[in-house]
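Help wanted!
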Amino acid sequence: MMTRKELDLWVGIFAAIGIGAMLFLSLKVANLATFTNSDSYQIKAKFDNIGGLKVRAPVKSAGVVVGRVGEITFDNQTFEAVVTMNIGAKYEFPKDTSAKILTSGLLGEQYIGLTPGGDSVNLKSGDTIKLTQSAVVLENLIGQFLYNKAAEGDAKK
Amino acid sequence: MRDIVATGNLVEVESVNFSYDRLQVLKNINLVVPKGKVVAIMGLSGCGKTTLLRLIGAALVPDEGEIRVAGRAVNRLGDEELFALRRKMGMLFQFGALFTDMSSFDNVAFPLREHTRMPEPLIRDLVLMKLHAVGLRGAAQLTPAELSGGMARRVALARTIALDPMLVMYDEPFTGLDPISLGVISQLIRKLNDSLGATSIVVTHDVAEALELVDYVYYMSDGKVEFHGLPEQVRAAGLPSLHQFVYGEPDGPVPFHYPAAEYGQDLLAR
Amino acid sequence: MTARVLELLRALGGRLINNWVWRLGFATRFLWLTLKESGTSFRRFHLTIREIYFAGVLSLIIILVSGLFVGMVLGLQGYDTLVRYGSSEALGVLVSLSLVRELGPVVAGLLFASRAGSAITAEIGLMKATEQLSAMEMMAVDPIARVVAPRFWGGVISMPLLAALFSAMGVFGGYLVGVRLIGVDEGSFWSQMQAAVDFREDIVNGVIKSLVFGVAVTWIAVFEGYDAPPTAEGVSGATTRTVVTSSLAILALDFVLTALMFRGT
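Answered by r_m:
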């Protein structure tokens, strides 16, 4: 028969380690510590083809993660993909920054790479990046390669 | 009912019918329990006595008829009033029904802690007094698992009288007890009834003990009250079923043999 | 011939309606009563604390040990498959997502149902069989408020904590096997995991799942206990039913919740 004090102690320990586990999961396992919405601003970029880019993919500049992809939508007027990125507030980029969709490794996940330009004015929240390069689509690459090979073969004849 | 000097009836059961699903358990029961008296309700197993007790305690609602406790119709009370009335009634269940996850002390303290705002020191004193009245003050820290059957029942009795009820009901209090415990319980029923100024109803089929103890007897059979009277009248009863019951005769209105085919035929049949 | 078949169908339908639909209605009303009478569970919180101890604390050992082993197995199996595609650094991702999204809530829920759920059913059923609940009623104490509701809330509060502990132990187990034993790069293990596991999508959804499972399991457990026939076979049948019904409910609800929450990221 446990006394009330013993019960309280054990339940307290249980609750403490339970909450500790949740904190561990949130901070160490998930990405709660990085990038809460309050200190990020949004930039848009339009691409002809986003390839395999997904929401929450990283946005990197010089290889360092500076933000995350927030939303991906389709512009039915220009038939382009519109990618909204959440960039950390402490990172500012000039207006003529270019955005490229790159692949990490040979067959890895796709991310957006930002290469800064030289403009003195910086991008503000809601701005759109003008210079973009779409993703490299593997099928197109292979098709191109085969076409080139075929063209070479013709030229040799 | 005309045989007792009526000092006022605490419980009045009037023309009560009750059925469990399709089975009619009580048929037109009429019964009164005068204040301050110890009344026995006796009968064979299944005659409806426990059901009657539950009806008086308002755990069940009669199909027809009325049950009055202290003048209030129990089967028509609202929740709040029933709640208040139940605090003045105590019921001792057949095997005690002690809460197994707490000590004897906490069991007896339970009604006090639930229904009153008494401070713990006062509760402690009261609990020890009640346990002392049943002779188990020294067993206060034992859990029900550590008590013998008789002791458990006495602790349950202490719990039943914790709030000094005006009506105490006993469901088969003598079942399964050794002779000493039997004597103890019997004495306690009488002593507590008189010292609390309460009224008691004892449901039992222990004839010898009951006739020694109670002031008045109701004998039930097959859902009806077949006989009622003072203990001497019960002993002298001419009614065959009552006679068989009181004297424990193996054969009589309740037959020895369960209905079956003719003996000779059964043996010779293929 | 057709008459027999019809008769069989009619009997089946009758039993279906009587046993299942009727019981479900009764169980729903019972849940409503339990929720209505929950005031006491919180005003006298020590009652609920006691139940958190019996449902949660006493389940700790089995949850922690199982979590560790599940995580370790995930580590082994995951590595075995991933290494074929040269993606062994994604082991952290595999282990953590599997645990946080699915295995944590579901397996912890199943273990909880069989350990704590059956204990609750047996306890309430036995209290009913030994007339303790009737005695309480006769003493003008509502058994639902005093006995059932604290156990309900004890289970609901314990479940998410247990699921989180299971997942955390699992991740640790995966780490032990993957990084320490096999030699996957520690940095990639954690960083890829952090990149892939989203707080709102994965962690919060996992917690929601465990809450839903907690409600389902504890509801079934208290109901079966309260409704059990007051005999030895009655209580044992009720305990079995609790474990079986809870387990099926967890798996079914898991499908529904997963479909709602994780519709292709």
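OP: Thanks! One thing I noticed: Chain A has a mean pLDDT of 82.
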